[in-house]
Amino acid sequence: MLQPQWRPALSGYVKLLVGLGLALYLGVLGVMFLAQRQLQYFPDQTDRPPQSVGLQGVSVIDIRAADGVASTLWYVPAQGQMPVILFFHGNAGSVADRADRMRAYLSQGYG
After folding, report:
1. Are 79 and 109 in contact (CB under 8 A)?
2. How far apart are the C-alpha atoms of 105 and 17, rounded to whole Å?
3. Distance of CA 19 to the CA centre of its chain
4. Which of 7, 30, 77, 94 can pair with 44 through a Cys bridge, CB separation 3.0 to 4.6 Å?
5. Environment class of 3 (CB within 10 Å of its CB; exposed 0-12, middle 13-18, buried 19+)
6. Longest CA pairwise span in the chain (Å)
């Protein structure tokens, strides 16, 4: 039985398209692997003081851990016997983006 002339040519195109698709897929995976930290964390690079978001009486404290990692803290002493809350804002933005939460805690007397 004779096969049509176009079948071998079509088979070559399919193999070429599958190969290109696989190469593209592996390329995208490689880029994602190499850039995974930039794709995961979106910290705000601006340094906004608490007064710029309407928080008065908030102190800014810069600390450096033993391993060299620097952190900037916003601190307000607690009122009376209320505790101080250690609030981590997450991996995106900055604590200034969560000023409404801090304002709510401060209004209840928490530090």
Report:
1. yes
2. 58
3. 34
4. 94
5. exposed
6. 96
Q: Would you tell me how many other CB atoms lie within 10 Å of the CB of residue 99?
A: 19
Work out the pLDDT band at 93, boundaries 50, 70, 90.
Answer: confident
Summarised one tens digit per residue, pLDDT across range 37-71 is 777 777 677 788 899 989 888 999 999 999 999 88
- Return the CA Rg of the chain: 28
The structure tokens 């290109």 sit at: 20
Three-state SS sequence of the chain: CCCCCHHHHHHHHHHHHHHHHHHHHHHHHHHHHHCHHHHHCEECCCCCCHHHHCCCCCEEEEEECCCCCEEEEEECCCCCCCCCCCCCCCCEECHHHHHHHHHHHHHCCCC
CB 49 within 8 A of CB 60: yes
Q: How does strand 70-75 pair with strand 59-64? A: antiparallel
Distance, in Å, from the CA atom of 32 to the CA atom of 45, rounded to the nearest integer, reads 22
